[in-house]
Structures are given as structure tokens and as C-alpha cells.
Amino acid sequence: MDKTLHIIGGGMAGSEAAWQAANMGVNVVIHEMRPKVETFAHQTGNLGEMVCSNSFRSDDDEQNAVGLLHWEMRAAAGLIMTTADKHRIPAGGALAVDREPFAESVTAALRSHPNVSVSDEEITELPTDGNWIVATGPLTSTALGKSIQAATGQDHLAFFDAIAPIVYADSIDMSQAWMQSRYDKGETEEERTAYLNCPMTKDQYEAFIDALLAADKTEFHEGETAGYFDGCLPIEVMAERGRETLRHGPMKPVGLTNPHQPEEKAYAVVQLRRDNALGTLFNIVGFQTKMKYGAQTEVFRMIPGLENASFARLGGIHRNTFINSPTLLDSRLRMKSRHNVRFAGQITGVEGYVESAAMGLLAGRFAAAELLGQEIPEVPLETAMGSLVNHITGGADAKTFQPMNVNFGLFQPLEDVRGGRKGRKIRYKGYTDRAKEVWQQWLASQS
């Protein structure tokens, strides 16, 4: 029997799966078609390339579910979290990274591992023999997508991910903008000033919304529908839901004080987050868009402080495909109809870098243990990992299945803990304390 584990896709999930399996002693081949076959969103052939935001979101492991997921991945010696910590840049309470060195480090770690090899040949059909993990992410190639569809007998569900633009820092007018994290969040001065803020008056905001709604947008291809994931809505789609939507979303002015006009409260604020360690690039937070390039430069230069902005990358839009995991996968991420094939990452219906890498971590461990004749217990439901994998493999309603971020709503309830908003802080701490204890026990059972 072939003891090699083959992984299709070298993104967050594929990279993490390869690392976990290789460290357990299994030979791994990563099949990554880039750079030989390019995608709309990727810029390089590096493994673990970040194509949207450079943020892994909150790093609070006591009051935030994604922060807890960070903690669990660190405890499992995860490659993605280890590398993220190495290339961390200030982002208030969030974990953001310098994206290019991050991907270069992930690539170097995997290519130098004695149990890992990388192939740039495109896999166009779902394999019938051998041991495989499909971790092709939101940009699964057309040929492989059709093969998966034929093998599963299910129509793919699709939505569109939109990419936020990146601005050169030296083109921002700092006589209008200022550096401050919302509510001055962060333990150091650098963290408390991690975000760049551009204020708007009511008139400026209204003019911006008018321009946003009138701008030329990217057209969909015939047969495509715009079924967006709510966590990654294009700003123009949010604006179409109501003129005040952005002001209560990514452009909310709360927790910020403009030092240029401290007595005047901004009506709305556009935030930019540092995108690299040098601080030369900033991405516009929450500004995913499907506006055409010419329209983007015109509309975004209406933002005070960005009148002369120079863009390192404009926003874009791409199709994201995922399978109906509650119907197709078991609790160990195997296809119910074909146990030699596992799925991991965004293609399973999790949303976000961290969630994708987490499913890769589990798939890699499960696959390696099976090849080595070892038994790994199912992931405890009390953990962030267990809550998420349980949701996509059975906890969600298959008829209405949509991509999901990790959140405390997926967790097993705590006994004798107050519900509602007033009891939330104690409840969240209870979730995270319980999860850490159980997760450590689960890891110890494999040592």
C-alpha cells in the first residue's frame, strides 16, 4: 500500500495539512499548480500566499472564538500560526502579518522539510487511488471542479469573494489622517496606533455613497449569481442595503478621536491597516469591491487623505466554490463515498484564513494517523476546532449550508452560566477555559 499523502493545493489548508502529516513521519507531496497555472487573485507561486486581507483577525484567546482557534493551532505546533507570529505587524488586538515574508517563510519551511516535496503539475481529476487531501480553496480550477461535481453528484454552491485595495503609505495625506486603533486598543503604543484613519463629514459621506452606488461594476458571467458571504461583502453591495450601512459597518466612527480636530466628531471614518512590516503599504479595511479599476481610483480618492492616493493593488472579485460538506463529509473530513479522499480549507465551507488552516491541521493529522495505523479520537466538540468541524460535517443544515467563520454560537452550551449580553464576558471566558483544557488533553492523547 502506498504510504504517501498527496495534497492538492498549497494555500493555508494545504500547507498546514502537509506540515502536520510530515511531522508525524508521513511522506507528503503538495500538488500546487501555481505559478505554472495562474489564478485571478494570486500574485506568486509561494505556498500560503494571502490573496485578500493580511489579517488573521482577533488574537484574543479568552474573549474571541478566532483568537481561541489561534491558541489551539499554536498548541498543536501549527506552521501557519508559528509563521504568522514570526512576521507579525501591529494591528491593535488583531494578528496581522507582513504577507510576502510570511508566504516566503511558509514555502521555505515546507520545501526544506525532508518528508515534503512539491509538484507544480495541475491535478485535473479527483483521484480514485491513493491517499489525498483536496485543499484547493476558493479558486478550485475549472477542470478539477467539474470532476469533484461529477464525483459528488452535487451542484456546487458558489459566492463571490471581493479583494480590498492596497494604498502606498507615502501617498496618504497625514495632515488629514491620523494613526489610532479603535478605543486605543493594544498593549503597546505601536498597537494602539496600528490603524490609519480618514475622517468624513456628513456631506462627504453622502457624496461618497452617491459615487459608490453610481460607479461602474464588474459584470457577472452568464449563469453566475451574486450569492455573497456576509463577512466579505463588497462595499457597494453594503451601500445598496441602505445609505447608513457602511457608517455602521467598516466606516463606523466610534472609538476614534481626530487629533487634527479633537472637538469635532467625524460622521464616518475609513480605516486602513498596515499591510507590511515596513509600513509602506496599507489596505483599506472592509473595502472589498467589484467596481471597475477606473471607478475605484475615482471613488476612493474622494476619501479625505486619499485624494492623491497611489494604489499598489486595486480591488477585485473572484468566484469562490465550496462543497455541501454536511452531506458529503464525515467527522474526519473524508468523503463518505470515497474514504481515501479528504477535503480541507475553504472548499469545505469554512470562511477565513484561520478556519481554513485549522481544517488543514485536522485533515493532515487524520490522514497521517490512518496511513501509520494509528487511532486519533474525534475532535472534542468543546474546542474551537471541534465546534467548527462539527458544524460543517453535520451541525449545519445541508439545505441551507453557507460558509461559516468560527464563533461561540457553534460551541456546546455551558451549564449554570448566565445567558444574554450581560453574561457574555463570563460565558466567553468559560468557553475558552474549557476548550483549552480539553484541547490539551486531545493533543496529549496522541503523544
From TrEMBL:
Q: Which GO terms describe its cellular component?
A: cytosol
Highest taxon in the source lineage: Bacteria
Q: What Pfam families has UniProt attached to this entry?
A: GIDA
> Is Thylakoid one of the keywords UniProt gives this record?
no
Question: Where does it mainly reside?
Answer: cytoplasm
| Keywords annotated in UniProt | Cytoplasm, FAD, Flavoprotein, Methyltransferase, NAD, NADP, Transferase, tRNA processing
Give the GO biological process terms: tRNA methylation; tRNA wobble uridine modification
Name this polypeptide is given: Methylenetetrahydrofolate--tRNA-(uracil-5-)-methyltransferase TrmFO
User: Species name for this entry?
Assistant: Donghicola tyrosinivorans
